[in-house]
Description:
Chain A is an all-alpha fold.
Amino acid sequence: MEPERPDGPDVKTEEGQSKATALIEKAREQGLALRDRAKKEFEGYKDPQQTQLWKSIFRVSHDRSDPRNRSLAVLSNVFLHLHPAKINRDATRYSFTWGMGGITFYLFIVLTFTGVLLMYYYHPVKGAAFRDILYLEHDVPFGKLLRNMHRWAAHLMIITTWLHMFRVVLTGSYKRPREFNWCVGVVLLVLTMLLSFTGYLLPDDQLGFWAVTVGTNMARATPIFGHEGPFGPQLGMTPYNDVRFGLLGGSIVDANALLRSYIWHCIGIPLVASIFMAVHFWRIRKDGGISGPAPVMLESEMKALKK
Amino acid sequence: MQNVEEFEDFEERKGSWLTGGRAALILVVLALVISAFFVEDWHQLISIATKPDNIPIVALIPLVIFFTWLGMKQARANDELAEHLQADPQLAKTHHRKTQPWRPGWARELHVWPYLIRIEFLAAIIVTVILYVWSITLNAPLEEPANPNLTMNPSKAPWYFLGLQEMLVYFDPWIAGVVMPSLLIVGLMVFPYVDSNPLGNGYYSWRQRRFAVSMFLWGFFMWIALIIIGTFIRGPGWIWFWPGQRWDHNAVVYDRNRDLHEIFGITSMPGKLVFGALVVGGFYFVGGLFFHWLMKRSRFKFRYLFHPREFLHWAKTSDEFESKILARTSILQYLTFQFFAITVLLAFPIKLILRLVFTIKYVWVTPWFNI
Ligand code: HEM
């Protein structure tokens, strides 16, 4: 919309008046230019991918027509670069991997997240621990949901880890060159179960107490290192210096056991498990990505053994 | 080998609807229906099955069945494809060799963004929804505060460790709690290194990998069976109560268990020592023969059970393909496999039967340890 032009009559005016008009004219022109610039700039903001902010964060635009962008979207993102840029077209089917490894990893993330939230409310101290759980259940907003989610995600993670291993066997994915990654997986399997087990004691209720008592009583019988195990007593093992004592920080399941369990559960094992997961994922890439679905090999194509 | 033709016609008898799998399914359903009549305490059975901490194991059973089926279905499709291609070498050269659809001109690889990321995202959403529903409907258990003076009876480990706890019945704690778990872990780790079969790498297959897959299934199902026993069968005092049988908190089981040497009337310590060593040595020898025999068998067919002549033939002839695989196996691989197979896969069920059916406690008694 053009502002109305004050079409003055063709009359001689004073000097000052004409000066003022010129000034106003100039200001008007500058204002219009600024408006045009703002308009143009605003047009630019309509496409956020062209902004400096966007480019600084994501580096690549999501222009679908350019396949290079799709690759870069994965490769230049720290979270996504676990993946290669491209994969076997059939490997994207759920029926091959069942998504089990990925779901296991996702559950680990869920557990880390809910676990950290739980840590804000929990003291690993006899007496306080149990009360903290009651507090979580009854007073903390969504505390019960939080606790439930942490517990069920832990159980689910064990199931998905087993099923993931099962899938790897059925597809023969542990075979050359992935033998070592299978071993890394076995370590992860044990760590997953230990993570769950160390968490079991933390509510400090009867369930956890007796489960851990039964569990650690087995450690008494460790050959050589347990005071009731074969050759243990002969080597000077007593209830006060054997491997069970080391696990519990005492000869019974008590305050020290609670603290040790807590630290293994929240720091020790997650740290080790994260390292092994990093290795696991790294090895998947280095071993040439997911093993299949690979073309079927025939019996007649079995190569003779290199002697 | 000349009697092969004689049996060739058996291969023709296809098309019977009663396959091994279906027969097994019918038997299982029948057993479940019949046993339902013997349940005297539904309330207790249901309360065990719906205990929040037992939900995962209850869920695990159908999950394992479903995924076994899903895997085997794909294995079968691949096996049929392999058979087809084996018979048609010309096709084998041109076929893309997958059961998944394929057209010339299709890219063999897809961009991870968005084709993989989107299904990962979808999976994450589904898992999240499941977790929310589960967490809203079921509460994590919380018992009384820990009390060392009040023993829980039965006092059970979390379900995923019930297999180990159940082993305590059959072995001394140093074996059940320390040696067996270590053997399980190491046994799993050596699995890829003792499997000398190069086929079936990266696709589902049964026929090409029958022995390896069945050995894993043997261990995996045994582990799950132990958990089921621990969850549904063990009651107060770790006594065997059939599912649905009412728990008797005052039940006492008189220890009728004997050691194997007692049956043979051996009393002196050196006698027991030598006898036990012989028994265990003999077990390893027979076990070794058994696995050696097993790994060369051809496919077992359900109808062999009803045709002794065919069964004998199956039991006596070694399979050509399996023998080829065995020939590729190094002595170290072979011995390692035998050790773990006999010590874990075989010793365990044998000890279970000895204990539960024949009430035998130890087979080898020494001054230092008992097995
Ligand atoms: C915390 C536990 C674990 C996590 C988070 C994890 C994660 C993953 C993921 C995301 C993959 C990619 C393929 C897929 O999703 O299936 C994978 C592959 C693999 N995993 Fe695991 N895994 C775990 C435990 C295990 C265990 C217990 C084993 C075996 C004993 C194992 C052995 C393997 C192998 C051999 C592969 C390569 C499979 C192939 O190339 O097809 N992992 N894992």
